[in-house]
Amino acid sequence: MTILDSLLFCILIAIAAGFGSFPSSSHHRRQCFLTNENSVSCLSRGRLSHRAKLHSITSQSASVAPSNSADTEKVKRHRTYHIQKPKTTRQKVRTLFQKAQYLEKKGLWRKAAQTLSDILVLDPRDSHSYLALARLQARRFPNTTRATIAFHNGTAACPNSVHLWQAWAVFEQNAGRSERAKELFGRALEIDPYNPYVCHAYGLLLEKDNATAAVNLWQHALEKKSTAALVCSLGTAYIAQEQYTKARRLYAKHLNKVSSDRERTEVALASAWLEERYFSNINGARQLLTESLRNATTSASLVQVALARFEGRRKNERVTPFTSDGGIRKNAERQKLEQACELNIQDSSSLPADGRVFNALASIEVKARRLKSAREILHRGLERHPQDYSLLQAAGKVEERMGNYTGARTLYRASLCIQPSAPCLVAIALLELHHPTSKKTNFALVKQLFEEALLIDPRHAPAYNAYARCVFEQEDDEQQARSIFERGVRAKCSDAASLYHGFAKLELALGNIGSARKLLIEGRNAAKRQEIGKDSPHRERALFLMHTLGMLELNSNRIVAALEIFNDGVAQYGNSSQLLLGAALCEVRLGNVEKARILFEKSVMNDRRHAHAWQAWGVLEMKAGNWKAAKTLFQCGIKNMPRHGPLWQAYAVMESRLGNVTEARALFEKGINQSPNLSSLYQGWASLELREGNSEDAKVLITKALTLDKHNGAGWLIASEIEQRLGNRGLSMLLLRRGVECSPSNPSLYRALGEGLLGEGKINEAREILEKGLEMDPAHAPLYHSLAELEARVCNVQGLSKLHQRAAAMFNSNVMEPSQNSSDAWASKIKAARLRNVPTKVTALAESASRGDAIFENDADVSTSSLLDDLSSQLLVGGISNLLTMDDEEP
């Protein structure tokens, strides 16, 4: 090489180095993809970079996801698509398809669809683009013909594409057109008779009506290729037919035949569930999980969580979650997850695919109300997995629970920047609904966020649940809310318990008891089907569905049916404090006090923070005359849940009934300090002062109670009684009428007002009020007595006979065979509670009170002593009745 050649070579190297230093424009072009898109996905954009967003969290969580070397490596590995000039049409198609995938991942649906359409202009026979476009249209416009047209065009251009025919068949199946779906599946099988994807999807369609045909189809497909979907579906079918040994052989045969690590993990988890649940082979199940963890690579975190849940189920049922000194014992699930997190942090040789174990451990801490601990766990997880969008979403939820709404929004947006997901969009929607950035909630934006969440994942049940509840509560549009739930039912959501539970609670709020019962039973059956062959991650939601169903039956006076449901729930999902309490209440109603005590004890030992369980148990002992035991139970409940006002109320009322007035006053005062906005505490204290003859003090207290809650019917009764004591009979009657207007579902108000009118000699008006009370609550027995006394007073024999028949149809002394009308009575009460105004007759009576004809006469008054006794018992037993609606909130 000459000197001139050497110099030329050096110059060329220098030029190349200079060009190499120019910044890449790929990031700028990728940002261009995200602009000018009319979509709520703009939340995933912003001027701050991902790392800058993580460091912009406000004071209490300055940076939940600090950067480190792993972050740098992740950024280096992050795929970017440089738009260069390809030389061939195939290269152009490949580049545009990658761009479309990126746009769809970021939620830019219109741009993704346009890009796929551009590909089909370049190559009208590209089956992958037809398939991607058709699926995108099916998700964006599920109720239109756009997807059908896209599938038709695709299969016409690519008639031998099995995946196009299969995707079209699944779309028709989800739309409820089963016969058309079967025809399309048949076309796909003509092309490839052993295609595992077609056989699996077609088998799921056939299984509902012809399980044998589905089993034969899956067996046929497994002759050529083993996939986790085929193996697990066939195993589930065997389990449903109670052919457990056949399922065991199936899993053992195909465990090592499936191709990928993820699929081997799926089969191993199904096999472990079979050994644990149906063979009670605990050691065998543990061995399968341990071996799967040893061999897993990308699915290691999934197995770690499954193993922790397994250990939790095995040990938590036999060990109380509390130590002897009242501290919290770390259960087996929590210990396993902590070990997995430490291993995840210390083992730098291999990085697991995600931070699932950190998320699972933080979830346990959140449920135990240890939010600071959950925040620290997620902080450590994000140090290890800074690109895990689900960890960022969980961290945002923790910040939201702690009141740090700015930090929560920042974390949610950071999660969306990595990957838009339905749970994150739902979280943002609920945050905007309850804590909007502006003074007024932008409900149109909230609904758009829900719709985009369902666009990303049409089978995400919590999105349907939250969306429908939001529409019902904010717009009072029950038809639209019901239609949203029906969309979820048609989508066959993966979390059936959440969807059916929310749908049933909507019907329950409307007083449609029969519809609610039907939905809850369907949801229970669907949830059981979903966990036949594997450990469902939604078991806790199924547990709450069982609790609501049991309480529905208990409220309908179907005691035996309710007890069976609670016992079934405990057998299905293990010891649950809510289910055990429900079973205890059933035993109380059946008169089995000893059994009830055992169940109450199990309930509080399972969750010492379950205030309703302490309260109900204390009331039981108090009614039995075990005052010391009741006192101890109330004190234990207050120690564990000091801010639960009804516990203070029940304890104070008990002391007042024992004559310990000073102690009762002190308890009411302490309860008000802990729960200053609970009207029943002021009401109970007013009742005490009225009994002691301190009418003025009672008047001040009941005024405060009614200021806090004007819909409290018992408060209006006490206020009326106070004025009666002070000699203001006219004002007393006015208060009763006002009480009926404010609390139209309270039957005691109708009875008191009717008897007051009867005492004034206004027979017809009294009868109308008592009849209206029975219409509002047909199961309130004292109203029948008052109306019977009225009819006897005027010698109305025919009216007495009709009333007797009506009461006989409503009440049944045999609790084993409840009355057919018990559910209808409860439905009437629910509907009455939703009324904004009382019917015209009662309003007219209130207006006519000012004219005052004979209104101040006091011929027949409500008995003071009996009223106070009734109120005292209502204060005590009311806490138990409140359990029927307060204990079934979803986590």
UniProtKB/TrEMBL annotation:
Species in which this protein is naturally found: Fistulifera solaris
PANTHER family: PROTEIN HIGH CHLOROPHYLL FLUORESCENT 107
Keywords carried by this UniProt record: Signal, TPR repeat
Biased amino acid composition, Polar residues: 57-70
Ranges for region Disordered: 57-79
Gene Ontology terms describing biological process: mRNA processing
Position of the signal peptide: 1-18
Official protein name in the record: Superkiller protein 3
Entries under InterPro entries matching the protein: HAT, Mbb1-like, TPR-like_helical_dom_sf, TPR_rpt
GO function term, MF aspect, one: mRNA binding
TPR repeat ranges per the UniProt record: 162-195, 747-780
Pfam families: TPR_16
